[in-house]
Amino acid sequence: MSDWDKVLAGGPLNSQSKEIADDRIRGQALLARLNATPAGESDARQRLCGELFGHCPPSCWISSPFICEFGRNIHVGEQTFFNFNVTILDVGEVHIGKHVLLAPNVQIYTATHSMDHLERRNWTAYNKPVRIGDDCWIGGGAIICPGVTIGPRSIIGAGAVVTRDIPADSLAVGNPAKVIRKLNPGEPRHPKATQ
C-alpha cells in the first residue's frame, strides 16, 4: 500500500514520506508554470491542467492565480469554471462536478488536524474529502470545509462558510452556512444574483 493509499483511506499524512514530498514538489512546479502561462495560451494551460489535476477535461477553465497543494487529488467535471484566486488544499480528494462555477477567492479545504496539541506539533494532517455536485454555483469568498458534500444545482452565497452538507437544489448563505430556501429547477434562468 502506497503512502497516498494510506492517506486517502483516512490515515495521517506523513509529510516526511518521499512519495508525498515528491508529489508536493511536482504539484508546486506545475502550478507555478500554470500561473505563469498567459490566458491566451489556452492549449499550453490545458496541457498543464491535465498534468496537475487528477482529472480536468479540456472544456474546463482555470483562471490564474490558482492555488493548490498537490493537484493530484483534484477531479473536475466538464465545463467547470474557476475564477481568479481559487484555493484548494487537496490532502484528500476533491470532486467537482460538471458545469460548476467557482467565483473569485473560493477556498476548498480537505486537510484537518488532530484536537491533540501534541500531535499537531508534528504538523500531522488528515483528510476529509469534499464533493461538489453538478451545476453548482459557489459565490465569491465562500469557504468549503473538510468533509462537506454540496448537492447538485445548489448555490452557496458569497462569503458563506460551509461546515455541513448542503442538499441538492438549495440556496445556502451565512457563517455557518444555512439553507434559506429550496431552489426549483423550473425557476427562471436568470434569478437575482447572490454575489
TrEMBL record:
This is Nodulation protein L. Keywords: Acyltransferase, Nodulation, Repeat, Transferase. Belongs to the transferase hexapeptide repeat family. Residues 4-58 form the Maltose/galactoside acetyltransferase domain. PANTHER family: ACETYLTRANSFERASE C18B11.09C-RELATED, SIALIC ACID SYNTHASE-RELATED. One of its GO terms (cellular component) is cytosol. InterPro entries: Hexapep (IPR001451), Hexapep_transf_CS (IPR018357), Hexapeptide_acetyltransf (IPR051159), Mac_dom (IPR024688), Trimer_LpxA-like_sf (IPR011004). One of its GO terms (molecular function) is O-acyltransferase activity. It holds the Pfam family Mac. It comes from the Bacteria. Acetyltransferase implicated in the O-acetylation of Nod factors.
